[in-house]
Amino acid sequence: MNQDILDFLRNTEIFSGLADDLLQTVAMSATSRALAAGETLIRKGDVADSLFIIKQGWLKIVTEDSKGDELILNKCGAGEVIGEMALLDSGLRSASAIALEGANVLELSRAIFMDVLDKNPKVAFAIIASHSERLRHNTFYIEKAIDWSLKTADGDYSFVESTQPLSADARANGDKAAELLAAFFTMVRKVKEREDGLKKQLEQLTFEIDQARRKQDFEEITSTEFYANLKEQAKTLRQKRNQS
Amino acid sequence: MSKGKIVSIHSFRGGTGKSNTTANLAAQVALTGKRVGVVDTDIQSPGIHVLFGLDETKMGKTLNDFLHDKATIREVGFPVGENTGDAEGRAQLTGKNLWLFPSSIRGREISQILKEGIDFNRLNEGLQSTISEFDLDYLFIDTHPGLNEETLLSIATSDILIIILRPDNQDLQGTSVTIDIARSLDVPHLLLMVNKALPKYDFAVIKAGIEAQFNAPVAGVLPLSFDLADNASNDLFSLKYPEHDWSKALRGVAEAILAAQ
Q1: Please, which pLDDT band fits residue A57 given cuts at 50, 70 and 90?
Q2: Where residue A203 falls among pLDDT bands split at 50, 70, 90?
Q3: A125 in a domain, yes or no?
Q4: At what angle do helices A176-205 and B203-214 cross, to 10 degrees?
Q5: Distance between CA atoms of residues A48 and B54, nearest Å
Q6: Are the beta carbons of B253 and B260 closer than 8 angstroms?
Q7: Of A119, A142, A164, which marks where a domain is finished?
Q8: What is the CATH number of the domain that holds B164?
Q9: Fewer Cβ in 10 A, N or C end of chain B?
Q10: Structure confidence at residue B159 (pLDDT)
C-alpha cells in the first residue's frame, strides 16, 4: 500500500473523515491512470462505469454550445472527484473531461465503488452528507436568487445597495452556486445602471428650451431691415416657384 | 424656372458632423440616379471637398469667380463621378451625375461680400443658373453654423432645410430659433436630423421627444460612432460601410429628401 495514496485520499472531500482501514480498501481498489495533455478522460454521452479522483494536474469539464463550439463548464484540480454523480444515478456522462496538462487520476470502477459503499456504510454516509451539504448550500443561493428576481421584476433594487459584492470570493472557491448568484447580482446591477441611464436620458428629453430667450433671439434677427427685405424677396420667390 | 430643389444643411453650432452628412447625403441621392450638385461654402476649413477627392492642387475656378463674372458656372463645377480615384466608397460614384461647386468665401469675408452686393436675388440667380446649367435635381448647400446673413440667404432660397442637431439642450435651444426663422421664411420642407446620439440611448425616445418639442419631423437619429470618426476624413463613410448603423440611418434621411415634393 502506497502511503502517498492513503494520505492523498484522506485529504479528499469525499473520503475525508474515513477510518484508515476503509481508506485502505478504497486505495487498494483504485487504479492509477496517467493522462497526456489534451487526452479525453470522460466522453459526454458515454455510459458511466467509474469515478475519478484527480491526483495531480488540471482537467476541464466541457460541453458544446448551440453552435457546437466547446463550452468550458468548470476546471477541476487535485483532490476533486469527477464522475461520481452519473455513478449514483446510473445516468450517462453529462459532460466531457479533458486533461489540460499532463495529469494523474485514480479510477474507481462502479462495481468496486458500489461494493465499498455496500460494505462500508460510512462512505455512503460521507457521500450523502457531502451532497446534502452541497444541496443545503445551493438552496440558500437559489432562494436568494428567487428573492432578488422578484424584487428586480418589481423595480425594487434596494438589495443592490445593501449587498456586498460576492464575485471575487466565489470565483476563488470554485463554488458554482455562489458564482451563479454573483453573476446574477452583477446582472441586476448592470440592468439598474442601464435603467438609470435611460431615466437620465428621459430627463434630458424633457428638453428645457428657454422660450423667452428663443423669442428674444428670433426678434433680434428678424427686426433688421436686411431680414424684412429677405422675407419679402423669399415670399416673391416662393410665389414664382409655385406658379412655374 | 428649374424644378431642381435646393437643399440647405444647417446646424446651430459647429461639430455636428454637418459637412460629412452633407457629402454622404448628396452621394446617396446621386447613387439613385439623380443629378446632384453640392455647394461648398467654406473651403478654408477641412471640409467637404476632401471627402469628394478634391484637393487645393486640383481646384480650379470657384463660386467666387462665378459671382464676380470671372468664370462660367461650367468651369466651377468639379465632376465627382469622373474623379473618384481609388477610395473604396467614392469609387461607387463613378459615372454618377454629381458635381461639387467649391467656394473660396471664408466666413469672416462674407460681410465684405455682402457689402459688395451679393444679395438674395443674385445668390438665388446664381443657384438657379447652376441648377439649370447642370440640369440638377438637387443642389445641396453646406451652410455655416449659426444664423449670419449668408446663412439666412441660403435658408430663404431653400426648398428643403435640414437642421442637424445633437441631442443636448444647447443645440435644442439654437435649433428652436432656426426653426422659427425657417417658418417665418416659408421654407416648404423642414427636416430635423439628430447626429452623434450615444448608442446606449433609445433612439425612438429621442425622435419622439424632439418631434413633440418642435412639431417637425425627425428624418433620422444617427449614432455617435468612433468608426465614423476614424474613417470619415477622406472617403464617403456611408458608401464604404453601407451596413453600419450610421449609414443605414443616413439613408433614411436621403429617402426623406427624395420623398419631399
Answers
A1: very high
A2: low
A3: no
A4: 10
A5: 73
A6: no
A7: A119
A8: 3.40.50.300
A9: C
A10: 94
Q: Report the number of distinct structural domains present in chain B.
A: 1
Q: What letter would DSSP give residue A3?
A: H
Residues A70 and A25 in one domain: yes
Alpha helices in chain B (DSSP H): 18-31, 48-51, 63-67, 73-76, 110-116, 120-133, 149-157, 169-184, 203-214, 226-231, 237-240, 245-259
Q: How far is CA B139 from CA A87, A155, B94, B106, B209, in A?
A: 79, 52, 19, 20, 30
Domain with A230, as residue range(s), is 211-243
Residue A237 located in a structural domain: yes
Domain count, chain A: 3
Judge whether A62 lies within some domain. Answer: yes
For the domain that residue A74 is a member of, what is the CATH number? 2.60.120.10
C-alpha cell at B26: 448628396
Whether the Cβ atoms of residue A6 and residue A20 lie closer than 8 Å to each other: yes
Segments in A106-224 forming alpha helices (H): 110-119, 121-153, 158-162, 167-173, 176-205, 211-222
Chain B CB contacts of A240 below 8 Å: 1
Domain that holds residue B128: 5-259
pTM score, whole prediction = 0.60
Q: Examine the fold and report which residue of A95, A119, A143 is the final residue of a domain before the chain moves on.
A: A119
- The answer to whether residue B230 neighbours chain A at the CB level (below 8 Å) is no
Interhelix angle B203-214/B169-184, rounded to 10 degrees, is 40
* B201 → closest Cβ in A201, A233, A240: A201
Give the pLDDT band of residue A164 (cuts 50, 70, 90): low
Reported confidence tier of residue A219, pLDDT bands at 50, 70, 90: very high
Q: Specify whether the CB–CB gap between B114 and A229 falls below 8 A.
A: no
**Segment 170-199 of chain B within 8 Å of chain A by CB:** 172-173, 176-177, 180-181, 184-186, 188
B213, three cell numbers: 418639442
B211 touches chain A (CB under 8 A): no
Distance CA A236, CA B249 (A): 36
**pLDDT averaged per 10 residues in sequence order, chain B, 261 residues:** 84 86 96 94 64 78 78 89 85 93 60 56 82 95 84 91 91 94 94 88 87 93 82 82 93 96 83
The three three-digit cell numbers of residue A211, written as one number: 422660450
Q: Give the Å distances, CA to CA, from B55 to B71, B94, B108, B180.
A: 19, 18, 22, 37
User: What is the chain A residue with the closest CA to B115?
Assistant: A226
Instruction: Return the pLDDT at A38.
Output: 93
A124 is a domain residue: no
* Distance in angstroms (rounded) separating the CA atoms of residues B10 and B157: 13
Closest residue by Cα to residue B98 from B158, B12, B166, B40? B40
Query: Do A233 and B156 lie within an 8 Å CB cutoff?
Result: yes
Distance separating alpha carbons of residues B182 and B156, to the nearest angstrom: 7
